[in-house]
């Protein structure tokens, strides 16, 4: 029987991480386990920045963005010595299991620690939704809703001025936020790495639409493409439509999590503690066909996530 577990958040923060931390702590307490909160991800594990959690340590956080445990990137944890220090800290405190809330990088670290005998369970927490073994990652819905609200606002002013707006959304190398935000905002075009694009073609279509009375144009660009400013300049040169660029940036990482993020975070966290309770480690929790499931960490990291090219194509086909 596992008696003591830890929980940490690592890599980029995501709305819903607090809901996950809360559910890990409360589930573990409900099962009679002791829980430790590790601050700033693997940095806190190596340095012993660790606090004992009780029922009240996670009060009043389910609706808050960010992470009460803070997060960090920890280069030292990529070294053999770093992982060994973390293992030794777990041994010293009697921590047998660990819930790691983060992205792919954090899961690689969790696999290393698992190989040293600490049972680790990864929970997918990133706004990018770029973790292959799961259809959904904690934070994705909130980030897309934030991006959608902001693009709507940009569209208002774009319409008033008969302009084009090029808006860059986050997603690291993946176009998932971009395609969904683009569809939700009725974007004229969506540019992601996953689908080839041609600025000449985009400009030509814009001019055809303008000739039929279209007043505003919104082009959603995925972060992986970059150069939103450059793209805006080229579009303006080619169309003579006044064009502005906006990079939405880190505003997409903050804010109160949506219902979906709070519920999925709670379900996944509960499932993670159940795995630890059974003495199971080296797994990543995910969602497949709306069901919570788990995978071996290495197998999860080797998977490839499909892009929804059909959604992308639908958006372009109906953007008159
Ligand atoms: P994310 O978890 O969001 O993908 P990062 O890629 O920045 O974010 O990873 C978070 C942390 O996980 C890193 O700072 C490092 O401590 C650890 N990590 C990342 N990649 C590896 C790796 N290949 N091996 C071991 N630990 C890693
Ligand atoms: O992974 C989440 C994310 O916000 C990505 O969309 C983005 O590329 C990256 O993190 C930004 O990281 P940082 O917080 O280090 O600027």
CATH topology of the largest domain: Rossmann fold
H-E string: EHEHEHEHEHEHEHEHEHEEHH
User: For the record, what CATH class of the largest domain applies?
Assistant: Alpha Beta
Number of domains: 2
What can you tell me about this protein's structure?
This protein has 320 residues and is α/β, with parallel strands linked by helices. The chain folds into 2 domains: 4-139 and 257-302, 3-Layer(aba) Sandwich (Rossmann fold), CATH 3.40.50; 140-253, Rossmann fold (3-Layer(aba) Sandwich). 42% of the residues lie in helices and 18% in strands. It has 11 helices and 11 strands. The protein has helices at residues 17-30, 42-47, 80-93, 104-114, 140-160, 176-184, 199-211, 228-239, 259-277, 297-302, 309-317, and strands at residues 4-9, 34-38, 50-53, 97-102, 119-124, 164-169, 189-191, 217-222, 243-247, 283-288, 291-296. Strands 3-2-1-4-5-10-11 form a 7-stranded mixed beta sheet, with helices on both faces. A 4-stranded parallel beta sheet has the order 7-8-6-9, with helices on both faces. Strand 7, helix 7 (199-211) and strand 8 (217-222) form a beta-alpha-beta unit. Helix 1 (17-30) packs parallel to helix 9 (259-277). The termini are far apart. The relative contact order is 0.17. The protein binds adenosine-5'-diphosphate and 6-O-phosphono-beta-D-fructofuranose (F6P).
């Amino acid at each position: 029987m596992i008696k003591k577990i830890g929980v940490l958040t690592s890599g980029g923060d995501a709305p819903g991480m607090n809901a996950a931390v809360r559910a890990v702590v409360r589930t573990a307490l409900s099962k009679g386990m002791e829980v430790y909160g590790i601050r700033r991800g693997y940095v806190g594990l190596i340095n012993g920045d660790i606090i004992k959690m009780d029922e009240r340590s996670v009060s009043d956080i389910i609706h808050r963005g960010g992470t009460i445990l803070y997060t960090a990137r920890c280069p030292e944890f990529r070294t053999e010595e770093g992982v060994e220090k973390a293992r030794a800290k777990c041994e010293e405190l009697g921590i047998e299991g660990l819930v790691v809330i983060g992205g792919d990088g954090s899961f690689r670290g969790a696999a290393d620690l698992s190989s040293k005998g600490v049972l680790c369970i990864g929970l997918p927490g990133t706004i990018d939704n770029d973790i292959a073994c799961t259809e959904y990652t904690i934070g994705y819905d909130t980030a897309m809703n934030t991006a959608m609200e902001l693009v709507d606002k940009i569209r208002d002013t774009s319409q008033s001025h008969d302009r084009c707006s090029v808006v860059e959304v986050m997603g690291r190398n993946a176009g998932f936020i971009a395609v969904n935000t683009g569809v939700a905002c009725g974007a004229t075009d969506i540019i992601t790495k996953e689908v080839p694009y041609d600025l000449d073609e985009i400009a030509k279509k814009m001019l055809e639409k303008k000739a039929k009375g279209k007043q505003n144009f919104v082009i959603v660009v995925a972060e992986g493409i970059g150069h939103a400013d450059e793209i805006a300049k080229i579009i303006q040169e080619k169309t003579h439509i006044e064009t502005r660029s906006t990079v939405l940036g880190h505003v997409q990482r903050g804010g109160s999590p949506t219902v979906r993020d709070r519920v999925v975070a709670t379900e996944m966290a509960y499932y993670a503690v159940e795995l630890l309770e059974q003495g199971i480690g080296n797994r990543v929790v995910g969602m497949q066909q709306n069901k919570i499931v788990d995978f071996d960490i290495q197998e999860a990291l080797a998977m490839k996530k499909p892009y929804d090219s059909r959604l992308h194509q639908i958006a372009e086909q109906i953007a008159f």
